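Note to self: keep these together.
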Amino acid sequence: MNVVDPAGARAGRSFFLVVALCAAVVAFVGFAPTFYLRGFATSAPPLSTLLVAHGFASTAWIALLIAQTLLIRNARMSTHRTIGLFGALLAAVMVALGVSVAVQAAAQGTLGLRFHQQPFEFLIVPLGQILIFGALVAVAIALRRRPAVHKRLMVIATLNLIAPAAARAADNLFHVANPKSALVVLGIGVVACIAYDIRTRGRVHPVFGLVGPMTLLSLPLRLAFSHTAAWHSTAEWLTGFAAPGA
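Structure:
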């Protein structure tokens, strides 16, 4: 029989709120120069409507996650479920916006330049992250009557959502312009999730123990696949343009 430390269980009730707040900090630091504090850069051109909508939707998701975790901590389950309906719609909108932003930037040749990546190859990174996010949220909604699974899927989904912000934050703070830097932040998040389970449950839930590491592994695998002819053909089809140098 697993013995759970009561003090650890009490501390664990705040874990999901801490994760949501940390996601908010990473998102702000990553996108402060180009979105949140863009108005302070007088020479910065205005963002397109698509980018503004994407930024507001992503911000709304983080705010919603914080609100939902607070509702759970305060046993406001009815309100949590009601707001969850809006969350499902918001997630669908975010996937559509995220795909559109990534594909448009690749077509314009600007995607990934900050990280010294070819746009058509780098497309696999943000496209993969937003699709992973959407898939995990969809499964979480389908399994909403299983709270232990539902909330953990939402956490892993959000960790994957903030991957672009994590890479940008590493560049903003430490001048490390490498998409793999996101793995450090996401890896810390997954390890924290596993440690939380061990402390509060005495064992690791499969969502944190399997799904979390699998999503981390997907990034280097996608980066490797991005150099193949198969992906280049896919990127050409998605953007409607020939890949540079083809």
